[in-house]
Amino acid sequence: MTVAEPQDTQSKLRKTIPGSVGRKQIVYPALFFVGVIVAWTGVVRLLQLPTYLLPTPYEIVVSFQGQLGPMWPHIRITFFEAFFGWVVGNLIGITLGLLMSESRVLRTALYPYLIGFRSVPVIVLAPLLILWLGLNITPILATATITVFFPMLVNAIAGFNSTDHLSEELMRSLDASRWQVFRKVKLYNAAPYIFSAMKIGVALSLIGAIVGEWLVADEGIGFLIVIANNQVNTLLMFRGIIVISLMGSIWFAILAIAERYVIYWQDHGHQGGL
């Protein structure tokens, strides 16, 4: 046993070397991506599928030539709609989450209605938003905001409620102000929850913007996908899907990097999920 323990310790240390973990995070997704591309191309060639049904990855990449310029205004408007909804939805969620965490009466009174409201799919609310807000960009901004708001609200409440009450009492015993208690204790504990909701909100804000564009817009990536569907233009549909995917991935990566610097005390290397 005395000989095995150091070996076990060394084995555990090797498994937690950051460089090794970093290489695996790059190599494994790359291998999976190559495998998907090869399998996709093989299926299309083997079954001789027409381009309008399922193009090959090569055909999709080639179709981008000369098309990014015309697509750029649509990319810009979709990003604006999603980013607006992400910012506003997060701000409202954090603010209301803080208020509900501080007031048990407010939390008890509002939470059941918020749960019921969240159970309604945003695509069901979209026609009402169009009726109330008009045939313009406003209902699209509203759908993006609504999709982001609830996950942030739930995480903010959980984060602010995770505060150690002994730490609060210690700060107050040192004559700390309410702002100092909030910043150094409550916000400190809630930050990981808030960042998790912010990262989840990236995909949700894009979904909200695309859903709104499907129903009311005359520009944007969602609008292009609707046009492509009507024209059976599969290459255009795939271009729209790839652009949205890249937009969300880059946005998510920026947030993940920011999280490492802002929440420097958190062990990011062993976090699961998002």
From TrEMBL:
Keywords: Cell membrane, Membrane, Transmembrane, Transmembrane helix, Transport
Domain of life: Archaea
Sequence ranges assigned to domain ABC transmembrane type-1 in this UniProt record: 75-259
Residues spanning the membrane: 26-47, 77-99, 111-134, 140-162, 193-216, 236-258
Bilayer topology term: Multi-pass membrane protein
Subcellular location(s) of the protein: Cell membrane
CC per GO annotation: plasma membrane
Gene3D superfamilies, sorted: MetI-like
Main location: membrane
Pfam families membership: BPD_transp_1
Any single biological process term in GO: transmembrane transport
Record-stated family: Belongs to the binding-protein-dependent transport system permease family.
PANTHER family: ABC TRANSPORTER PERMEASE PROTEIN HI_0355-RELATED, ALKANE SULFONATE ABC TRANSPORTER-RELATED, MEMBRANE SUBUNIT
Protein name: ABC transmembrane type-1 domain-containing protein
